[in-house]
Write a structure and sequence with these properties.
Blueprint lengths: L2 H5 L3 H10 L4 H19 L2 E4 L1 H17 L10 E5 L26 H8 L3 E6 L33 H8 L5 E6 L5 H7 L2 E4 L19 E6 L2 H11 L29 E5 L10 H16 L3 E5 L6 H24 L6 H8 L6 H21 L5 E5 L8 H4 L18 H5 L3 E8 L5 E8 L4 H12 L14
Parallel strand pairs: 2-3, 2-4, 7-8, 7-9
Antiparallel strand pairs: 1-3, 4-6, 5-6, 5-10, 9-11, 10-11
Helix pairs in contact: 3-4, 6-7, 8-15, 10-11, 10-12
Length: about 475
Amino acid sequence: MTSDDLRFASITTLARKLRDGDITVDHIVNKSLEVIGNLDSELNAFLEVWSDEVREKASEAQRSIEIEKSASPLTGIPIGLKDLVDVYGRTTTAGSKVLQGNIAAKDATIVQRMTAAGAILIGKLNLVEFAFGTTGLNAHTGNVSNPWDKTRVTAGSSSGSGASVAAGMVPAAIGTDTGGSIRMPAALCGIAGLKPTYGRVSRAGVLDLSWSMDHVGPMTRTVEDCALMMNALAGFDQADPASSSEPVGDFTSELAKGFDGVRLGLPKQYFFDDFVDPEIKNSVLDAIKLMETNGAEIVELDADWISLGRRIGFGVIAPEALAVHRKNLGERPDDYTMAVRSRILAGVSISAVDYIEAQRARKWFSHEVANLMQSVDAIVTPTVPIPTPTIEECTPTSTDPGGGGQMPFFTGVFNTTGQPSLSIPCGFGKFDMPIGMMITGHSFDESTVLRIGHAYEQLTDWHQRKPNDIE
């Protein structure tokens, strides 16, 4: 493999090369550390890199591969962690001054599972403070730049996760998603990002933003890699009260089935309305047409109420975030950045009755979406409705909250329902920036969502394109 091939290789490719003896874990780890060293001063994706420990783990992983020929596909693969995830003995700061020096007493469940699968955890990734923001900006830890254009945002809150995978720093990263924080950075950075069904992946050891809306999931170069990550991440966990005991199969098992028999829902309202950028709309419609040409059946869906989903979700997120931060906000308000403090305080205006009504509306909305989808396997929409804004346009001031507020209009709908939702690249638009397509399926049917995304990838090369190196 050339140096560039190694840098941007998928987990699937790396696992095969390791198994065949064409490369070693040292090659992979050293390439990741090299790229991080070369690029992170400009991208600011990482908060912490564990170089010495990673090199030690590489030797252990290599021995495992040589001794145990059936080693997990994740064995020896470097993975970055959004800094909401606890790793024993390491700091978990959530990108905030408030949690400086917060040392984790144990590993998060997902850390235990990835480690058991042989993955090498390479470091902590930057994010929006406390994961409460959509643009990817953080006045405390510094903004993350988009690898396709360093003047532009990655979206958030999993900003470092999106940038690190897109730039070839790591083959995969962990993100969290409360209103779109996996799928928006995936869309703007040109990678795959899966928000699993709520309860499918344990949140134990992952800091809360909104406990009834938070999801944890993978961000990778390909859909197949998301499936491989899910094989390690998913499953019941007694330590997470919201964890589901729904059976977990092999998430790669359906990937090769293509579009045969697949019915895709095309919403007539909201997701393709006039406020959506024309290039984004046309790229997604072209992708849907390509899937139809290759065997998928397209079904128009009539749902003039579907735009309510995000507003209902915010009525849940805001008071839950306030409850999470009540103590620290009372004791250390000045340690929060101005932007995040104001977002948290928005929960003050939502009464207990309003919160209960929002949860009731959420049940109604989820029921209506489930009914809407009875005749289809998944809904296909744009991920983000607007072109990638610049960091300058999104930076708040004392008189201007900053731009980019439309980015979660679509993603937040499916946090309200908790359904599995995947973003994959489907083209390039203004400023030569990636465009994301969102595929949303039935609860606990990640396999079909991944199957559809993988089948689309086999027809296109959008996921294979690489950003130019930062200069």
